[in-house]
Write a structure and sequence with these properties.
alpha+beta; three-stranded antiparallel β-sheet; two-stranded parallel ribbon; 5 helices
Amino acid sequence: GTDMIYAYGVSTLDATDVFESLQHIQGKQKIKLMYSDNHPSIKRACRNLGIMREYSQPGVHETNSVIERTNLDILDGQRTLLIAAGLPSCFWPYAIACYCMMETIAEDDVDGKCAWFARFGSYFEGKAIPLGCGVFFKPATTKYLPDKADSRLQYGIFMGYRLAPGGTWNGEYLVA
């Protein structure tokens, strides 16, 4: 209903990974209906989360053309981000999530609205930063103990956004 898109890089296609990904997307707000293919892990995860499903017909491309086109768009966008950033394909989980976020916060040329606004009722308050862009950031003191002479800011590469359950954003960027 909002045109918001998500993608998670998972190591397997088992029901546990699908369950955790859907649960993270859902957050506190219940997903009422999901349109998907008939993959067993999706069936099981939706059953465990109490999400009703509408199935596409196997072999009938017209019944799943919208999601297949969305998947192609996401994969092409992820590849484009990796190429533009000069990153190898092993960084695809970051690229795919970053592409989805960029699409979600991009304002429509016609009405100025975006999927983020449709879901949360306000515009995204963070910065739209390209994947692989060089940034200065303040490292967490729990992960990095700077020397007294070190700059308070460190140089890193932007890798995306850390989304909280429900797809909300608490101000955290991912930097390597």
